[in-house]
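Sequence in, structure out. Go.
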Amino acid sequence: MRKFLILLVLPALLLLIVFVWWKSVASSVNSRDASSHDFLITRGQSLTSIGRALEKERLIKSELAFRLYTQLTKKSIQAGKYNLSPNLNLQQIVANH
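Output:
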């Protein structure tokens, strides 16, 4: 019985932790900051590099979440100049590319 509870509770707890983490990192960096930032993606730039730059510019909270989201949703990121804002969430940032 104890083993059954562990097998039931542990995955549920892990799922809850992942859900809370995702909700946190997928939200906007600052919902009240509507300032615009020009962001340049060069041809051949990796998702990791783009994610790090977005995180460094404080446009997203997590490079890892950016990579996971783009890979899981199969979103392609095109080279170009983008006008982004810290009040955009992760889904909106990726949709702007």
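Check: The chain is about 55% helix and 10% strand. Residues 2-26 form the longest helix (25 residues).
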